[in-house]
Amino acid sequence: MDQVKQQRVVNDGRGADLFLIMLVNYLLKVVTLGIYHFWAKTRVRNYMWSHTLIDDERLQYTGTGGELFVGFLKAVGLFIGFSISFVIVQTIVGALPSPLGTVLGGILFFALLVLLMVGVGAVLYQVNRYMLTRTNYRGIRCGLVGSAWYYGLLNAGLMLAASLTLYLTLPWARMHLYRYSLNNHYFGSKRLEFEGSASDVYGYFFVCWLLAIPTLGLSLLAYRLHELRYVASRVSLDGVGCSVELYFWPYVGLLITNFLLLVFTLGLAYPWVKLRNVRFLLERVELVGEPDYPAIRQEMAHGDAVGEGFAEALDGAFA
Amino acid sequence: MGGALYGWWADGQTAARHRVEMIGVSGGALQLRSVDNGQVLAELSLRGLRLSEHVFPGQPVRLTHRDWSDALLTLDTPELLGRLGPEAAHLQRRYRFGRNVGRGIVIWGGATVVSLVGLVLAVPVLAGLVAPALPAAWTSELGDKVVERIERDRPACEGPQAEAALQGLLDRLLAARNSDTQGTLRVLDASSVNAVAVPGGHMRVFSGLVAEVDKPQALAAVVAHELAHVIKRHPSEAAIRQVGWRIVLAAAIGDASTIPQIAGRLSTGLLEQAYSREAEAEADRMAVAMLNEAGIDSRGMIDLFESLQQQREVSVPEWLSSHPALANRIEAVRPRVKPGEPGMTDADWQAVQAMCD
């Protein structure tokens, strides 16, 4: 039997480099009254991607600021168009005679609520799709197939159901979402495979759920990390498996030290904090096995940046 | 080119990586030949090559090509870049950036500080240029809205004799200046000891202030001071400054958390008050001049300030305040004040004092 190849994912970025990038970005954002934001974001991603190595090969970010800017403009245009048509429809419905108008008005309001709930998941899916299709490894694009609206619907329905059961069904909801999203992830022609079941994590979840109030929600963070370890262990791509050894107390230590670093430097340590976060995760990731690289073909089409544009336009809700 | 150049080639078709030797061929092209089997994998025009990303120290140089979508050529050492020949000079130029990170931080940091200071200082200058150029229709529309809001909870006091006396005072001051400034002057029923000038030439004196002053000259001083603001367009300038600072603040802080937001608000607030103090001093100077020109007793200014001094028990440090300290205001006007008429008859003055009862 062949020896199974084990490898680490490494980030060799330097805080000073990132600081310089962010400094220049800051200046250009100020003098362009913020419009440079999209190019700034792209430059940071470029740096982070090109300093992340898997099997001695660096990732490559191929997105552009112009693309993000156009996506943002389209999203704002769609949003304005939608708002105007909604107001028009609302005015017409409001003018209708009493019983019919009230009923239609109620339906309209309910439809808007559903659209917003579904929209959140859909936008997140599209953001993910944009990022993946702009991520190259060994000249091959990653990708995300599947329907963003379906994911949004799934997300809204499952989360609503979970809230109705006091979140006791949360693990099922989350595993269902992971199954849909992760199994639609691609690296070139190779699909990511995820097979997991909520029953594997339910015992851990239930204890955390019981402790949620006494621990002020910290036990739910512990569950999220447990879930991450579990999901990683059930993921494979072309025979390559993954493990993430991310545990609660070291993670809390990271959060506290990052907070202190930011406070005592008045936020100037942000580039170092960002790198610390990325490294903390990557140092705990191990990939097992090696794919058959020549068999992986270029297949994924580019996704558009409208979803990311929406996320930008509604920054507070998604950041 | 001299000496063999080596690197890694990923062709954008499959995820395989090929060890290649790069050979310069005629016509400014680069041939990639597989080290394993000697096969020619690609021929790239040098002009079509681009750096895949900005290269920082310790990072390999990676090139993409216009005609080869997603393909990536990784050079063994960055020095190879210099050996690709003049057609690849554009790559060399971009590569230099970012070599000296420390120097970059000093230069860009300095540029950032200079730009921020420049923007902050540019706001009042721009406001001074823009305010006189604003169409009167805009400022009066804005002013009407503000006045409407002020008067919503503070009704205007009425009385034919008092209103005529106030209008007479205003006209007298304007006539002495030969000014064609349009303005409205009213007394509002409100207990606070205050008076305001709003864009569009609206002056409002609160009844609390009327009750506080004990001579018609002091009221004339109040009106002259507010009229000076109107003539100098201080309210419009202040409104534009505030919008400008808000824009600069938004650009400087962006989507940061609330603590820098609050710090930013505070600092622009202090800046605004510094400019406001300057405008107040200017209005005081002009008010004295106007009163003198109109033959009204400008010692009323000192009466006014002294009444305000008695009324204010707690004194705020000057730098925290929108107005200069009263003691300083008194010292500033004292050399210029002159005796003169009271500005209105005793009967008119009594009518004004009684109009809000």
What is the ordering of alpha helices and beta strands of chain B? EEEEEEEHHHHEEEHHHHHHH
What sort of overall outline of chain A do the alpha carbons produce when their principal axes are compared? globular
Ranges of chain A where pLDDT stays below 50 over 5 or more residues in a row are none
How far is it from the N-terminal to the C-terminal residue of chain B, by CA? 98 Å
Largest interface: A-B, 45 and 41 residues
Radius of gyration of chain B: 35 Å
List the helices and strands and how they pair.
The complex is a heterodimer of chains A (319) and B (357).
Chain A: E1 6-11, H1 15-31, H2 37-50, E2 52-54, E3 57-61, H3 65-95, H4 98-133, E4 135-137, E5 140-144, H5 148-164, H6 170-182, E6 185-187, E7 190-194, H7 198-211, H8 218-233, E8 235-237, E9 240-244, H9 248-264, H10 270-282, E10 285-288, H11 306-313, H12 315-318
Helix pairs in contact in A: 1-2, 1-10, 2-3, 3-4, 3-11, 4-5, 4-11, 5-6, 6-7, 7-8, 9-10
Chain B: E1 5-10, E2 18-25, E3 29-34, E4 40-45, E5 49-51, E6 62-65, E7 68-75, H1 89-96, H2 101-133, H3 136-153, H4 160-177, E8 184-188, E9 195-198, E10 202-206, H5 207-212, H6 216-231, H7 234-253, H8 258-293, H9 300-311, H10 326-333, H11 346-354
Parallel strand pairs in B: 8-10
Antiparallel strand pairs in B: 1-2, 1-7, 2-3, 3-4, 5-6, 6-7, 9-10
